[in-house]
Every structure is written in C-alpha cells, then in structure tokens.
Amino acid sequence: MYSFIARQPVFDKNMSTVAYELLFRDGMTNRFPDVSSEYATKQIISDLFLSTSLPKLVGNNRCFINFPPEMIVEGFADILPHDKVVIEILETAEPNDELYSAVRRLHGWGYKLALDDFKMENGWERFMPFISIVKFDIRAYSFEEISQYVRQQKKYLSKVKLLAEKVETAEEFEQYKKFGFHLYQGYFYSKPEIIKNKRLTPGKVLQFELIQEVNRPNPDLFKIEKYLKSDLTLSYTLMRYTKNVLFTNRGIERGKNSTLKDTLLWLGINEVRRFVSISCLTNLGTVTTDELYHMSLVRGMFCERIAKATGHDHLASDAFFCGLFSLLDTILGISYEDLFKQITLTDNVVNALAKHEGMLYQFLYLARLYEQQDWDNAAQIMESFGLEQETVIDAMNHSTQFADMIIA
Predict the structure, then answer these.
(1) Which of 8, 92, 156, 385 has its CA 20 to 30 A from that of 375?
(2) What pairs with residue 109 in β-bridges?
C-alpha cells in the first residue's frame, strides 16, 4: 500500500511552532484512510523507523502521535523516544483501570501524554496528574462550555497545558489565549488581517524591485549586483546559500575567492530568481511564525511540479512564484489590492492571487486542498488534470523536503 505521513503544526501563544501532529494517510480520496486507528498508528511507527526519520519530519520539535487505548495498554508506545514523542490518547478511550496503569507507567518513564478531542466527561480526574496536555476541539464545543469546564476542574487541570484545536480565526486564537490556553492547532495563522493603505518601507520596496528585476525577460546583471550590494544581509545569504545548499547537494566545488558577480554568473538566472524570491520573502514579513514561510516554500515548489506534471512547463516559473507569494498578504499584513499598486508581478500571478482565476490558481487551489485534507475536492481537481494521486503525493513530499532544507 502507498502510504505517507502528513503533519500539522502545534503553536504556542507566541505563534511559534513547538510540535507537529503526525497523521497517517494512504491517499487523497478520503479524509481518513479506510483503515483502523490501530493500523494507522502502526504504519506511522513503521515509517518513522523504516523510511522517514523523525528529525527529518519534525526537526528539533516534539511530535504528537495518536494512539488507540488498546495499543497503549499493549505497550506499543513504549518503543518510541520519550523525549521526542507526545502520546496522544484517542477520544475513543475509556478511563478504565488498565489504561490508568499504562498511563502511569509511561509517565514514570518520562513520556508526555495528551488527551485528544477531550469530551469533558467524568472519570478522568485521577489521570490528570500524569497527563501533560488536554486538547479541546473548539468546533465540537462552544467557548462557554469549554471555559466553564476548565473553571470547574481547575483543581485537576492546574498543571496541565490546555490546547485548542481547529482554531480557524485570529479572533478565536485571541479569545483562547486571553483565557489562558497554552497551545493551538488550526489554520488561524494563515488568515490575513487586512490593513488598508499600508505602505511598504523603502527597504521592502528595494527587495521587491530586486524580485522584479530578476524576473524580467532580460534581467540586467549589473542592476541585480547593485541591489544585492546595497543589502549586506542578502549578499551574505546568497554566498552562504550557494556554498551550503547548491554546491553541497550537487557536489560541485567553487573557487574560494569568488566575487558576488562570479557567483551570479555561475548560478545562472533561473537559480538567482529562485534565491532572490525566497530570501526576500523571508526578510519581508513581521509575522512571528516560520510556518508561514515554510508553507509558502512548499506551495511554490508544489505548484511548479504540478505545472510540469500537467504538461504546462511554460508556466512552471510563474507557478513557483504564485505558490511562494500566496501568503504574502498575511506575511505583510497588506491586501493584494494595495500590494499590487506598489509592485509588479506577471498577469498570470496577479490573476491567480487577486482574482482566483487561471491555471495557476488551480495549481494553488490543489495545494490548499491538500493542506486542509479536503480529499474529495482535491480528487476532482486531480481528475480534471488527469493526475494520479501518487504524482501529487510525491510532489508534496518533495516540496516539503525542499522547504525543510531552505528553512534549516
């Protein structure tokens, strides 16, 4: 069976990524594969040890892994590294004696445990001293219901971190943050707060001028060099990028005394375009989470690969920038309407981002459906393109690895 692991970030109150929840998937035709929760968990454990290493998936962060209660009792969680994994007890669990003994055992060995989609039922009170995190599904319960329960159970929850999951708006994030929740999951961080008539600073304008120059049909190398020299950080980053990423991966040696101009000539315009766009993007924003940049990089590479997979090679470059800039309104806190008055991008990219029109938007839409695990609508897009799900999964896996490498 073709299988892969999806991941969803877990944030703290400062919007910093502190963990990832790992989710088993075997395709894109259903929201969850037609397999048992036991099979899904065993497959994740197998993949972590036999194919994809844990550090590659989560870096220095912890990961949350769902465990059916039977597997916890049977000892399947015991084989995972206690300093990297949070054992997530599924909502189907009953607070019985067998599970209580297993939870105490794991806690004694240094494991962190979480209660998933907590139903706020009686019987879990004795578990709380051994539970690190309680997850509340804010789509299943209202804020009033959750806050009332937390107040009533303050005695038992005093040393437990509270996690709000399925947080979809900035308002919900602020509401639970103000109440005292510690952790969050959801797509609230990618919803823009539009600030009308906000102007870009001169430094940001310069970076966009650089982006525009490298994307002209016949870019002026002297102008590019001048722009880069006016921004010491960009110049240094280019030299480091060239040495640590490109040359390391391709096994090619570069002269030790290469100048900035030498580096630009050696790279070629296509690689310079990619570097400039990625570097300027990560220097433009004021957001506090790297997840937005990571998602932008994933979307860029994914859209490029899908363009090529569907026979639209001539759109590959624009597809990359469409995906890369798809969160620019959120990163900058400025609407696309105002943004496009200040910078120039190709009509294809503008139509996709501002008007949700054209082939590029279809590539971007597929990326967003994948992120949201909306497999039904994703399947329709794939069918219209004649794409096999393995092709799309490979494109996303490759794109995630690309983003991980750049962020690192």
Answers:
(1) 92
(2) none
Contacts made by residues 7-10, CB under 8 angstroms, sequence distance 24+ = 7/57, 7/58, 7/63, 8/185, 9/185, 9/291, 10/64, 10/163, 10/183, 10/184, 10/185
pLDDT for 60-109, tens place per residue? Answer: 778 898 888 888 898 888 878 888 889 999 888 899 999 999 999 999 99
Residue type, 277: S
Q: Are 162 and 134 in contact (CB under 8 A)?
A: yes
> Looking at the DSSP assignment, which residues form a beta bridge with residue 23?
6
Structure tokens at 378: 């994703």
What whole-number distance in Å separates Cα of residue 20 and Cα of residue 52? 15
Condensed to tens digits (0 to 9), the pLDDT of residues 142-190 reads 999 999 999 999 999 999 999 999 998 888 999 999 999 999 998 777 6
> Rounded CA gap, 321 and 261, in Å?
24
Side-chain half-sphere exposure of 176, counting CA atoms within 13 A: 34
8 Cα distance to chain centroid: 7
